[in-house]
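Hi everyone, sorry if this is the wrong subforum. Our group has a chain we'd like a structural model of before ordering constructs, and none of us has done structure prediction before. Sequence below.
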Amino acid sequence: MIRFAKVFSTVLFLVFIIITPGCSRTVVVKTNNSGNVPPGQMKKATGEKSAKKYAPGQQKKNK
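Answer:
Right subforum, don't worry. Here is the predicted structure as tokens:
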């Protein structure tokens, strides 16, 4: 009976380890009254290395 419990707990642990990385992470970003999110906060929320993409002053203007 003890051997069955060890095998069962090992299998359960392995199943848990395999299933866990598939869970997605939800990111909630709070905005200020104007509805805009500061570039640094958006960078954190998306996991980017640079906030340049989210800073309107850093965008190239199309001519």
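For your construct planning: The chain has a mean pLDDT of 75. Helices lie at 2-19, 39-46.
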